[in-house]
Design a protein that fits this description.
The complex is a heterodimer. Chain A is mostly helical. Chain A contains eleven helices and no strands. In chain A, α3 runs antiparallel to α4, α5 crosses α6 and α10 packs antiparallel against α11. Chain B is an alpha/beta fold. Chain B has a single domain, classed as 3-Layer(aba) Sandwich (Rossmann fold), CATH 3.40.50. Chain B is built from ten helices and ten strands. A six-stranded mixed sheet of chain B has the order 6-7-8-3-9-10, sandwiched between helices. In chain B, strands 2-1-4-5 form a four-stranded antiparallel sheet, covered by helices on one side. In chain B, α3 packs across α4, α4 crosses α6 and α6 packs parallel to α7. The chains are: A mainly alpha, B alpha/beta. Chains A and B meet through α7 and α8 of A and α2, α3 and α6 of B.
């Protein structure tokens, strides 16, 4: 009898926790949709922000800016991250793992715990100060650093998950070691690594703090990558703390778009994983 | 007339301090099938991995002695293990097609990554290899599907085709049927008999009937030592050594 009661109580607790988790997400999503959907219009996607005081306008520069920032960050952090992942995975399977690999693994864990605003300050002093201006380059430098630990550690784990027999099959075909690693093992780990990259992308899409003093934001089109650039989270932040009602509404719409983009990215990453299963 | 294709001479192998092979010498004859039998852990797999130098990828592995391929020691300092592995192909215990590659690419990848650029040559070699492996008719309409969607036996024949694409002279089979059902096993055995016309074959097997069915010569290994080597028929009907007889009668192993 007692056993059954405990069983029921545990069941109840587990189910409620599960429902609660879904609930939190649904409430956030529902609230943002409720607040944001009314301000969504075609204008929002194709127009620049209007001057202060005028109603209307859109966030096209911020949407495009966010994509540019994410693309630039991905461009530099993915190769470095994946190659470091290869190094970590391969060195751990060799006879005597080097000390450097355990140092690197530790540093990456530390790096993933560094608050993003600190990384922003770092990019500010390293790039913005010497160049004497805010820029897309500085912004994507900061975002890329945030991506690095995730990409490297996922790549390492995914490469380690490739069965030994795959490596042996490739070497037994007379394919040399580096080609085996780059064209066979990486190819096998590709779905997992892509998922890791997409999760990192989804994370930096919403990052605001490191962009505050690197990309800075811009109410107009950026003229080059060496100029301040708008980004969706920055624009949301600027509008949300403004005193204007119309801007508040636009901030909600921006939040809705941001969350939708992130969902689409996560959805895609799941698709990729399932495709190869 | 027997021509020796491969000669294993006084071969000893270690993993770290643990000696797995003790002074093994076996001649392998051209266009014949040689079976290596013995209880688990007797060094069968290590022995054939020494023939394509695949044991080297295990950290701290060590070898002494010689393996002569057409008279040339593959452990000589001027020999590139990659060249050895192109001449000595290998089929593994578990079918292991490359999971993210199509059927076509699984067979083509060995050529492509070994520097073959000619697309037509690749195309024709792949199709020939699939035909030789007896798989072409079953997969000709789905060459661009993933290889992992095939059945276990088909996957194993795909792995054989992958090896054949490189035109190896010797093919090593490491318990190729231990994961397969009887019908797939029969197909692989027929294939081995077909392949020996143009290849020299060494097969490691746990299945004594299989050794009797496919091989002309049999080597019996026990605890890393070669106990007996000879014609399969005489090993199975009139073994010279007591250990061999006991193993074949099923008294241990």
């Amino acid at each position: 009898m007692k056993r059954k009661i405990i069983d029921k109580i545990m069941q109840f607790l587990i189910y409620t926790s599960g429902v609660l988790v879904c609930f939190v997400l649904l409430i956030i999503l529902g609230y943002i949709v409720l607040k944001g959907i009314s301000s969504l219009s075609l204008d929002f996607f194709i127009r620049l922000p209007k001057p202060v005081g005028e109603v209307g306008g859109g966030m096209v520069n911020a949407i495009v800016g966010s994509f540019i920032l994410v693309l630039l960050s991905t461009l530099w952090s993915v190769p470095i991250g994946v190659l470091s992942g290869v190094y970590l995975a391969e060195s751990s399977s060799s006879a005597k793992p080097s000390n450097f690999s355990s140092v690197l693994r530790f540093l990456l864990d530390v790096l993933s715990g560094v608050p993003s605003i600190v990384i922003g300050i770092f990019a500010y002093s390293l790039i913005v100060l010497p160049m004497k201006k805010f820029s897309a380059i500085a912004g994507s430098f900061a975002l890329g650093i945030i991506m690095l630990p995730t990409i490297t550690r996922t790549a390492e784990e995914m490469i380690k998950m490739v069965p030994r027999s795959i490596k042996e099959a490739s070497l037994a075909l007379g394919i040399n070691y580096w080609k085996t690693v780059f064209f066979v093992i990486l190819n096998t780990a590709k779905p997992g690594i892509l998922t890791g990259i997409l999760i990192a992308v989804a994370r930096i899409f919403g990052e605001t703090a490191p962009l505050l003093f690197t990309a800075f934001g811009n109410r107009f089109w950026h003229r080059s990558l060496f100029e301040p650039i708008a980004a969706l989270p920055l624009q949301i932040f600027a509008y949300a703390i403004s005193p204007y009602d119309d801007w508040h509404k636009q901030a909600w719409a921006g939040a809705l778009i941001l969350i939708l983009i992130v969902y689409i990215i996560i959805f895609m990453s799941r698709k990729i994983l399932l495709k190869y299963r | 007339m027997l021509e020796t294709k491969l000669e294993i001479k006084n071969l000893s192998a270690w993993y770290s301090e643990h000696q797995v092979l003790k002074n093994v010498s076996i001649p392998i004859y051209k266009n014949k099938v040689a079976a290596i039998i013995g209880p688990s852990g007797c060094g069968k797999s290590t022995l054939i991995r020494c023939i394509n130098r695949l044991h080297e990828i295990v950290p701290n592995a060590k070898v002494e002695g010689q393996v002569l391929l057409d008279g040339k020691n593959i452990y000589d300092i001027d020999v590139d293990p990659m060249e050895v592995r192109k001449k000595v192909g290998m089929v593994f215990q578990q079918p292991n097609p490359f999971p993210t590659m199509t059927i076509f690419d699984n067979v083509a990848v060995g050529l492509k990554l070994n520097g073959v650029k000619d697309k037509k040559l690749i195309q024709s070699t792949v199709i020939n290899a699939l035909k030789e492996a007896g798989l072409y008719e079953e997969v000709k309409d789905k060459l661009h599907h993933y290889g992992t969607h095939l059945s276990g036996g088909q996957q194993q024949r795909l792995c054989i085709a992958r090896t054949l694409a490189l035109r190896p002279e010797v093919i090593l089979f490491d318990e190729p049927c231990s994961a397969l059902d009887p019908i797939s096993t029969a197909k692989i055995e027929d294939l081995i008999l077909e392949l020996k016309k143009n290849h020299t074959i060494i097969i490691v097997t746990h299945n004594l009937q299989q050794a009797a069915r496919v091989s002309e010569y049999t080597a019996f290994l026990y605890l890393g030592e070669l106990i007996e080597f000879g014609l399969t028929e005489s090993i199975f009907t009139a073994p010279k050594m007591k250990k061999t007889e006991e193993y074949i009668m099923g008294r241990f192993g």
